[in-house]
């Protein structure tokens, strides 16, 4: 009679748990970095480029399904080498320029390592999808070692996120067999969303310019008023009081 390999199963369970913990901790580390940036902008700047964030960690079932689709060997090193989006963070912002601003702020942090960048804004996918994708290495400090863990970051505008969310729902409903006519309409909708992004950014730039000009004008008028003000007259008695003379 074969003995049930309890020890081997326990070891495998512990390895899977440690493996998933690494991605969980890396995602938490990255979320903290973004939260710090959000709070800094809220407290010190007039404008916050980060609207909201959403994180996700693939389930073991989802990882297994992706292994099958990619024809990978079932081993933790192979999974780590071939599946780069186990942990993901999506950052949504208002304007296209914010996307690159956030990217630069994150990559300027010395403990994050850029592994790969895919700019689907300048070069959108065939279906019209736009977003900036970054794969970054995040250091995770465990009790016995340091690990570099890959996390995918997607940065997109509200309009891009709106389109991507609805496109995903439509494809899910049709089980990825969307009629060609609807595919073309989805692509047109993506172009319309991008046009809206460009237009809103232009309006924001014009409003910012008007605001800056008015502030400059106000400062100039205030300087002129202060320059025209009569010198402050201090009585001789008050001067003697502060100088200590009788």
From TrEMBL:
Pathway: Purine metabolism; ppGpp biosynthesis; ppGpp from GTP: step 1/2
Entry keyword set: Coiled coil, Kinase, Transferase
One Gene Ontology term from the biological process aspect of the record: guanosine tetraphosphate biosynthetic process
Keyword Repressor in annotation: no
Coiled-coil region list: 20-47, 186-220
A Pfam family assignment: RelA_SpoT
Transferase keyword on record: yes
Protein name, entry field: GTP pyrophosphokinase family protein
Native source organism of the sequence: Cohnella thailandensis
